[in-house]
Amino acid sequence: MSAGTLYDKVWDLHRVADLPGGATQLFIGLHLIHEVTSPQAFASLRDLGLPVRCPDRTVATVDHIVPTTDQRRPFLDPLAEEMLSTLEANCRDNGITLHGLGSGQQGIVHVIAPELGLTQPGMTVACGDSHTSTHGAFGAIAFGIGTSQVRDVLASQSLAMSKLKVRRIWVEGRLGDGVYAKDLVLHVIRSLGVKAGVGHAYEFAGPAVASLSMEGRMTLCNMAIEAGARCGYVNPDATTFAYLKGRPHAPQGEAWDRAVAWWSGLASDPEAVYDDEVRFDAASIGPTVTWGITPGQGIAIDDCVPDPMTMPQEDRALAEEACRYMDLRPGQPIAGVPVDVCFIGSCTNGRLSDLQEAAAIARGRHVANGITAFVVPGSEQVARAAEAEGLDRVFREAGFEWREPGCSMCLAMNPDRLHGRQLSASSSNRNFKGRQGSASGRTLLMSPAMVAAAAVAGRVTDVRELL
Hints:
five-stranded parallel sheet; 467 residues; 16 helices; single chain; alpha/beta
């Protein structure tokens, strides 16, 4: 059993009660809500006659259903308009802050909370979205929850949860040129599998993790859930504190100094005990692309699609299904596979550094004929910062569309969708069948720079050839 890790310390600090059956009632420091998973929770609360317990610890935005080409109200999709109107009413009725369209602070929930300084080390964070693990980049313990749990947190500001095991993912060395946090986490998932993390929290550590920016760490933790882990985190350090300092909700003045001292003490102890540890060498990781229908079916850009018959018996059926669905042959190089759509954005890779890395590839080049390529900033703040640097102009001149902030084609609960059998190069987080809006659409996950390379080449390309 783990001891002395950040996870153990944060868990103990937020323990309200030990429940019959072994679960723990855990206080939730920050509850993030959006338009998709909150309406039923608020309705249930009204049916029970309960108020929102801590509206000052609840923050809302709109992201999943917003269109990215025309955000004028009312939306053309009446269901999307109803969902946003319902969120607005629920926030108004319960005194909850909503960062709505045009506020200057709207965007994907996992992008705006960090950039506003809402997410801080040592917190427990919950949100009705799988990729809430993103917030672990700050040394928070962050859980994605279902609608009934959203109701529970609204009513009690707490959750009944069972404590997880802690696995340390230690990454030695440094990532090479053209290799990013997305490649690192795709490599971890392909190596360990999508179920290896079940019942675990993943602590990402080691020199390669310490050298990542906060935005890189957010990408890493964002996809911990795709490795099966309930949450992922990075111990807070000077990089964390530099990112947070001066943000609107970060402590100010003397409170800042006290906070930094306290946050520093939450990091895992040098003698901390982990349930287990897995080590990787960053230098051995190349640009990584998925070839199948789970985030664990990935290979390096210079690899070939694996032969299912060479896999363990338990993996063969899924691999055969993936080859059929993706129209890929065992032994076929992944480099050179033609793509139809190139999407840069999402809570995984829709931040400023992601756009900077992609723009460095797009600059002075042009999207290949027949390719639809578009960029969706993760928030209004990201859009403004990118436009101040002229990144929107770089993308437009290269033939990309520059869109309004939102979740976009990551999950296609809005007009941004694949059509028919289109194949997308995507900086998002899931490549499940039908994930991007077409029941037969196909998705290749990769870094934003790799997506930009695919866009200009019209096929999957090693971004290192374009640096």
